[in-house]
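RESIDUES AND SHAPES:
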Amino acid sequence: MNQKTDETYMKKAIEIAEQASALGEVPIGAIIVKDHEIIASGYNLRETEQRAVAHAEILAIDEACKNLGTWRLSGCTLYVTLEPCSMCAGALVLSRVDRVVYGASDPKGGCAGTLMNLLDEPRFNHQAVVTSGVLADECGQMLSDFFRSLRTRKKVKKDTALDAKE
């Protein structure tokens, strides 16, 4: 796909991420596209559901498999606002997604090129093509804003608790 198409789909992933943010979740959104059609989407629900596997990519993969009636997502591209972690990269390989496009890099957990690239590991029986940095500034800013707001809320809560003790 071309850069303009990638940006169009990444904007959709950003819209999905905003739904997570509205719930107080880390704003990460993912969509899966096949034949120029969005067939699935997901956003982080890890805190809401208290499930370690409730990452945007995993939820989108699960929905895509249900919608297509198969675990093989050949011919699909996943767009995600943050670089996939090891769990999500593994799920993408195992589900045979052909291409992964992400926005912001993850220096602490990124496994699509930052810390390692599990999606292009030749010892696996499947590899996915990776395109990184699509709308990276917008994706990164959304995450930065979320965490800044979270720190502010925690500080206010802590200060309020201290004031109540006095």
